[in-house]
Amino acid sequence: MNALRVGITIGLHHEAETLWNNGIKQNAVFLAEALRQCPNVAATVLVNTTQTAITDKLPWDQTRWPTRTFDDAKDTLDVLIELGGQIDAAQTEYLKQRGVRLVSYCCGFEYVHAMESVLFRRPLWGENLFVNQRYDDIWMIPQVDNISRSYFEVLRRLPARVAPFIWSPMFVEERSKDLPESGRYRPGSGPKRLSVIEPNHNVVKFCLYPALIAELVYRERPDSIAILQVTNAEQIARESHEFIALMNQLDIVRNHKAVFLGRHDTPEFLARNTDIVISHQLENPLNYIYLEVCWQGYALVHNASLCPELGYYYPANDAAKGAQQVLSALDQHDAHASWYRERQRTMIGRFLPDNPQLVATYSALLDDLVRKPIR
Fold first, then answer.
1. What is the distance between the alpha carbons of residues 201 and 154, in angstroms, rounded to a whole number?
2. What confidence score (pLDDT) does residue 208 get?
3. Which of 27, 197, 250, 316 has its CA 20 to 30 A from that of 284?
4. How far is residue 232 from each of residues 168, 196, 199, 205, 207, measured CA to CA in Å?
5. How far, in Å, CA of 181 to CA of 300, rounded?
């Protein structure tokens, strides 16, 4: 079998689109980096499915990760992995006529998006939904398996398989290189700054439980807390009467020890504003933010069951145990900050694009893919 030429779709909306507004573009680059390591891959290319021009303003090295339009790439591919941009029926037919395998790479909690779109009138596709029936395989990352597997399989009419989650520090380190200590955590004296940086776009990653955890810590050790900072919350703190009423029940808010902020660049906010990050998720137990925080040595208090070895883990929705972990970080973290950071980096190794087991798994997925008859 000849080595494969693999495309990975992205959907650009701006020529200089940031990498920090969501994880999809990072995901595409990380996947490309992992596939580059596979012995059965000859080349990888990022394939933009929108009309946005490809220019040198893109925030990644196009020598290392070549980026092309669909029309420029379509005749040079053996496999197209649809990840961040969707191709249409005509483009699918063109690829199929050429014998190209098509993979749906699922890295979002799409069932939740669909459910909220329907129930809360959040338009996604309207009446123009196109569900491609001609994928040759479905690969999904582990954290979306439990809630979205059947959603993928029934609509796409094909069994799904779990593919390894991939992350690299390349972007967080590049963004942090000019920050104090290259953005790494620095021990300090006095009360600590607690940060919550959930996106607050939906029920999956929402700031309420972290705020409750901070409240329990504040009740027990008020002098240990300098401030609670909740990012991506400025709008709901102004406009949601329910959120305002809930927050006003908390001592940490009543005593003016909490602020609700807008959107911030994560690496810079960590480096300049943060000592401890408190996180909570529903049905998304592995996320880039956990790895970014831990790689840089910050105390991460979280309930992500697919990486309990990282940071300070608490189970499920147990705010009391989450508060205990914040107290542990307050008492212990600075004393072993360097050891903690290096230990986190060692454990994160299983997610890196050059991890041998990860590369072997993707190589095996590709081998199985090309053995299948084309749909």
1. 26
2. 98
3. 250
4. 24, 9, 6, 11, 9
5. 19
pLDDT for 257 equals: 98
CATH number of 4-168+352-371: 3.40.50
Report residue 140: phi and psi, to 5°.
-130, 145
Dihedral, CA of residue 74, residue 75, residue 80 and residue 82, to nearest 10: 0
CB atoms within 10 A of CB 27: 22
Alpha-carbon distance 3 to 134, whole Å?
Answer: 23
CB–CB of 273/195 below 8 Å?
Answer: yes
**How far apart are alpha carbons 8 and 31 in whole angstroms?**
8
- CATH code for the part of the protein at 170-350: 3.40.50.2000
Q: Which of 224, 199, 226, 194 is nearest to 212 (CA)?
A: 194
pLDDT tens profile 226-265: 999 999 999 999 999 999 999 999 999 999 999 999 999 9
The pLDDT tens digits of the residues spanning 309-357 come to: 999 999 999 999 999 999 999 999 999 999 999 999 999 999 999 999 9
Which amino acid appears at position 113 of this protein?
Answer: H
255 secondary structure, DSSP code: T
pLDDT digits (tens, 9 = 90+) for 103-146: 999 999 999 999 999 999 888 887 889 999 999 999 999 999 99
Question: How long is the chain?
Answer: 375
Tokens 């029309």 belong to residue: 71
Question: CA nearest 166: which of 73, 83, 268, 232?
Answer: 83
Q: Which of 130, 100, 12 is nearest to 62 (CA)?
A: 12
How far apart are the C-alpha atoms of 30 and 8, rounded to whole Å?
11
Backbone phi and psi for residue 110, each to the nearest 5 degrees, phi listed first:
-65, -30
Model confidence at 16: pLDDT above 90:
no
Domain positions in the chain are 4-168+352-371, 170-350
Upper half-sphere CA count for residue 44 (Cβ side, 13 Å):
23
Q: Give the residue with greater pLDDT, 21 vs 261.
A: 261
Chain segment 274-309, per-residue pLDDT in tens: 999 999 999 999 999 999 999 999 999 999 999 999
Residue 99 to residue 93: CA distance in whole angstroms: 10
Mean predicted confidence (pLDDT) in 85-100: 96
Residue located via tokens 């940490």: 252
